[in-house]
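note to self: dont lose this again. the chain is below, predicted strucutre after it. 301 aa total, dont forget to put it in the shared folder this time
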Amino acid sequence: MNVFDCVVVGGGPAGLSASLTLGRARRKIALFDDGTNRNRVTHAAHGFITRDNIKPQEFRELGLKELENYPSITYFHATITAITKAIGNEGFIIKTTDGQEFISEKIILATGIQEIFPFEEVRNFYGKSLFSCPYCDGWEMRDKPLLVLAEKEDHALHMAKLVYNWSKDLVVLTNGGPLSEEGVTALEKRDIKIVVDPIKKLIGDDGYLQAVEFVSGETIKRAGGFVVPSFYRPNHFVEKLGCEVQEDGTAITDGAGRTTEKNIYIAGEMEKSAPSSLINSAASGQNAAASVNMDLTIDRF
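---
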């Protein structure tokens, strides 16, 4: 059976960064990833200095290639199905879909999150003309006729204020959700149109939006825009391993990746169950790895 100092679950920017840091610290590391990272649907990632406009797959491949320089790191393209505490809570047993088992002293959870859209057809356009992060994709959508799709008023107002920096030609869609008089006034002061009617369908070709048709029969032309999804963790490792979470789903940590369960760490979007930039996720992964390395050092010195 394979025995490791630390298993890193998830090969996004957080997991890659954590693995690199631990590999450079000469720790025996296993990195597991199954290629389901949520940014795989987009053509390019932005905002990571020296890597602006890089394709997500290229970013991942570059990261994995760099890990090859460190012989103590082993990469597995596999899905982990179970993580259980070993007898006496000394380490963990990790099982994969292909029947393999591994033992690790410590675990970093970095599998990220996934989206639930207010209108499921958004998925057909997501990553090409509809996005969730203006900082990531606002520049590419600048000055185009855009929409903001959000069913809750606070989300709609927040996103509209942000997107307005990149385009003044803006329509807010609530897909049937109500807006208060104050909310309507705030948007109309900026000449932002509001449509509260439920959406019937999105019209476009090959992922590029052209128009939105509503149940009322109205149709508006739009070239793209930004949506406010809700997010969830794609697995239940946090809960099953007993890590405490706040009411909003954020994992409780010490600020450096350590959860409330000994030897379990968390990094990247999985910690807050909320979206993050590549560069922030990578930083989170490095911080968690530094905590792992320090704890291993203290345990063994």
